[in-house]
């Protein structure tokens, strides 16, 4: 997707502070962190949101969970706790329409809700 910010980050056309990369997945620090640690974990394949994932994507999406747990371990927030979430669509506040998981940590996070 030529007009997708995250596809441009994957292609190296926009800079990012990467913390993880493999064949299918990349993770980098959020440009506007909403918590002391705020990392985005995304597939290299352009998928607009979880709602657009196909049968062939579930394995990779499972790997994203594994990568989230690994990064949390590396950043030493496993004990203090962390949150992994993905926003889907307008009511969830999804701004970037390329599937991404937020890994948030480093402080007591506010409860989920309205
Ligand atoms: P959403 O609301 O779509 O779930 O979250 C999108 C996230 O992407 C936001 O937390 C926002 O700060 C982050 N973001 C938007 N543009 C960029 C960018 O160019 N680089 C990085 N690293 N993060 C971005
Ligand atoms: Zn994209």
UniProtKB/TrEMBL annotation:
PROSITE patterns: HIT_2. It holds the Pfam family DcpS_C. A motif (Histidine triad motif) lies at residues 98-102. It comes from the Bacteria. Residues 5-114 form the HIT domain. This is HIT domain-containing protein. It comes from Paenibacillus phytorum. The lineage of its organism: Bacteria, Bacillati, Bacillota, Bacilli, Bacillales.
């Amino acid at each position: 997707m030529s007009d997708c910010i995250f596809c441009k980050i994957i292609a190296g056309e926009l800079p990012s502070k990467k913390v993880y990369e493999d064949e299918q997945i990349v993770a980098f620090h959020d440009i506007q962190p909403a918590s002391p640690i705020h990392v985005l974990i995304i597939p290299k394949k352009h998928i607009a949101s979880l709602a657009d994932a196909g049968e062939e994507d579930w394995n990779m999406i499972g790997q994203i969970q594994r990568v989230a747990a690994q990064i949390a371990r590396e950043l030493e927030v496993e004990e203090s706790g962390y949150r992994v979430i993905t926003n889907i669509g307008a009511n969830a506040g999804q701004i970037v329409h390329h599937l991404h998981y937020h890994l948030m940590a480093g402080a007591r996070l506010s409860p989920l809700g309205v």
